[in-house]
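dude i think i finally got it to work??
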Amino acid sequence: MSPSEQVLSYPILGDAALEPPAEWAELRRRCPVAPVTLPSGDRATLLTRHEDVKRVLADPRLTRQLNAPDAARLSADGGGVFSSEMAQIIPDGGEEHLHWRRLVGRWFTAKRMAALRPAMTEIADRLVDDMVARGRSGDLRAGLGFPLPVYVICDMLGVPAADRDRFAYWSDTLLNLTRYGQAEIEAAQVEFFEYMAGHVAAKRAEPGEDLLSELIAVGGPEDGGLSDMQILVTGMALLVAGHETTANMIGKMVCMLLADRGRWERLLADPSLVRTAVEESLRFDANAGIGLPRYLPEEIEAAGTVLPRGTTLICSMAAANRDEDVFDAADEMDLGRSPNPHLAFGTGAHSCLGQALARTELQVVLEVLLRRLPSLELDVPAQELERVEGLAVGGLRTVPVRW
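look at this
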């Protein structure tokens, strides 16, 4: 049966954690606009070609919010990061959204990230020291991949990094597909909301040198700033986005580079490839999670198919990043690939606000590991690496390495 004649369950998983599902290539070739069933049981439409995904993500008419009555639910509980009440507080389009991005985006410029780079390197070196002190092997996710981005985003928000395990749990409940029940999710979101409300109130009383203090200092909407609720939800959103995806990507990147020893050796021989190797890791990531949803408030066309108003689209950036029409030898990892127009951070007005931060963290981790642990290798066969299950983001449960 061809993809156009069946409804696939989504997300579609490859045979191994680092491998793309065979269905991606088939869908791009024969059924680029495919019906799928989400974990909630609701029907959506999957896009897998680079051209279609890029155009839809850049279309300002479409919304990431899935709160319309006829929008598909990602998870059975109907909550989550795209359809919760909190998701509606940050403006989703138009001049209000651009204003929000301008205010918050000042903290995520390439120039500011360059200034943070020495401190990031120091944190990574200290975490590697701790790993080495514990022996000749360990879990790179727990030892480096998770704590580094948490320390960085906590510092930017002025939040105590000692609370990082609570942040991880709260983040996971917001990114739930099938792991948690509704009562647990709601309780966790209330805890997270109350925590951040207390933190914003403390910053208002005693401002610091951090993003939230700066947003408060601008004033309210009448002064060209954000409302208290918008500042609070911005803090929550950045805490989730600022650590979860990058923590997972650090582990996946290292595993991709170690899965074929020639890749690691090439970087050891030529560390100037670190920047392009990071971009290629982002493109090559086959375990990127569910992708980005878009709800259609009006009819559009994609790949010659008319999609009616009320359709929920799922844009698979990971599938689009393997599109042979855009990338030569798309199924090969080329550490020097340039140009590399991957869509890992989305595109257009809703492209990832923190991409300069993520890129800098990934580059720093790679530089530090190549310098400190040149003999690094996987401690299990790549095929035995286990995926994170039940969340909207992709990742590995552990990253067992030795050195």
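The mean pLDDT is 91.
im so relieved honestly
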